[in-house]
Design a protein that fits this description.
Layout: H1 3-25, H2 35-45, H3 57-73, H4 79-87, H5 93-107
Helix pairs in contact: 1-3, 1-4, 2-3, 2-5, 3-5, 4-5
Length: 109
């Protein structure tokens, strides 16, 4: 996937995650999603196995950002779906991003 999709996905996910935290806590939040969280989600969804063996965590995270950015641009995911998925209670944020990624993958044509 292209660098442009990854950059867009990065901005989209940071916004959506900040919005989800703001709605959950009731206090304004502005956060960046750590690459580690996204890389863990990529492993959980099986996306990591489709990438070359010798790529770093940042590139793995970029692939997930590209997937989700592309899915949003193609109208396969809505902003509300992304935020609601990230608001779900789970043990780790990577579980929420994994669930979101699975949703995106299932809707690709």
């Amino acid at each position: 996937m292209s660098k442009g999709f990854a950059q867009f996905g990065d901005a989209l996910l940071n916004f959506a995650y900040s919005l989800a935290l703001t709605e959950t806590t009731g206090a304004p939040k502005g956060v960046r999603v750590p690459d580690k969280t996204l890389a863990e989600a990529a492993v959980k969804t099986g996306l990591r196995k489709h990438l070359p063996r010798r790529v770093g965590r940042g590139d793995v995270a970029n692939s997930l950002e590209a997937l989700l950015g592309y899915s949003w641009l193609q109208k396969n995911l809505t902003t509300d779906e992304i935020v609601e998925s990230l608001k779900s209670e789970s043990l780790t944020p990577s579980d929420n991003f994994a669930r979101l990624s699975e949703m995106a993958l299932s809707r690709l044509k």
